From TrEMBL:
Organism of provenance: Sulfitobacter delicatus
Annotated protein name in UniProt: Cation:H+ antiporter
Cellular component GO terms, alphabetical: plasma membrane
Entry keywords, A to Z: Membrane, Transmembrane, Transmembrane helix
Example of a GO MF term: calcium, potassium:sodium antiporter activity
Localization: Membrane
Transmembrane stretches, start-end: 35-56, 68-93, 113-141, 173-192, 242-264, 276-294, 301-318
A Pfam match: Na_Ca_ex
Predominant cellular place of this UniProt entry's protein: membrane
Gene Ontology BP term (one): intracellular calcium ion homeostasis
Alphabetized Gene3D superfamilies for the sequence: NCX, central ion-binding region
Keyword Protein biosynthesis attributed: no
Amino acid sequence: MLMPWLLSGLGLVILLFAGDALVKGAVNLSLRLGVPALIVSLTIVAFGTSAPELLISVKAVIDGVPGLALGNVVGSNTANILMVLGIPALLAVMHTSECSTRKTYNQMIVASLLFIGLAFRGVFDWIAGLVLLGGLAYMLYDAFDDAKDHRRACRAEAEADEEEPEGADPNMAGWQIAMFLVLGLIGLPLGASLLVDNATIIAQTYGVSDTVIGLTLVAIGTSLPELATTVMAALRRQADVALGNVIGSNMFNLLAIIGVASLVGPISVDPSFLRFDLWVMLAASLLLIPFVYLGRDITRIWGIVLSALYVLYLVVILI
């Protein structure tokens, strides 16, 4: 019984180091390309930290348990906002008031509403999958279009007075940037897999049901890469990476993961998702309005509020 605990701890350590490596690589890649760290976090970082959800969801559909795929994504999106932003805020204030995330936040809300609308069809089939992947294609095109505009602006303006983000090293070699990104992208799903698999063994040993494991351990476990990346970004005072990571990961979860998984096989929507879980996910997304539109920082008080709301959500699920 000792081995699952040791492997769970190893998974957590891998997650923390991989999160740190991915943030370093993303920030320095943005510096090298002349692209804002926010845009990099919305693409490379978001995709890397959403890899565990993709792997688990596709496997769930192949294994004939498609409901786990939907629960994994919806539960992870709720955890991404309440837990992934709440816990890091307890460690360090995230100065999100300095971030320009309105456009990407609006896209996340639209993606959430599109996802909920498709859920009311009762099943995510190949048609819904193509619609979601079409939304993902537009989001990526828009992000890269913004990146090109930013690069043109940088060439036109003097940027000598612009302060470099903490953790950025303008002299970092290209192979080092690639190494950090690769280590992060490989380490995050590996660490999450170790932690989720062994935490599941521990839970089953103590007689916890498969349903509770799916709604709690799987959703929380697959959100741990986002949590690890956001903690390291918060400690490095990279609020744009932290907030962009959460927004980007949520969009990837809704558009890419269910989009791909529904092409593998149909995903039926349990009525309980339509009554409760989808609306909790949307309500959690709307909680970001003060930070996106009102210029508020995510302080420790907000960290307590978000974390407490997530604990309350778990209690409701367990009851």
